[in-house]
């Protein structure tokens, strides 16, 4: 069940990203995709924050420094956008580090680079809220 945590919200996010890619194609700047995806999320009524400051922790202590992800969807999904030829291990590690220091359970790495949209979903089980 934990692998399904926020899966519907993620499905909606990816659907919005596909809509942006369908409209614009690949190979444009990350900033263009960022703004376009923000508009599409708004059109579809998907709650998000753009460039929101997320709290960062060290050994359980809140730091003054904040992390600012590209998008923060449904209050729990960290989204890192790219417009590169291919996603690298470095991009994946970057997102996982962001998720860990902000204690967010789900992250999406979305690449608008050509020729097609590529996305990956990541889950850190230790940060899934007990309901």
Automatic annotation (TrEMBL):
<protein>
    <submittedName>
        <fullName>GxxExxY protein</fullName>
    </submittedName>
</protein>
<dbReference type="Pfam" id="PF13366">
    <property type="entry name" value="PDDEXK_3"/>
</dbReference>
<dbReference type="InterPro" id="IPR026350">
    <property type="entry name" value="GxxExxY"/>
</dbReference>
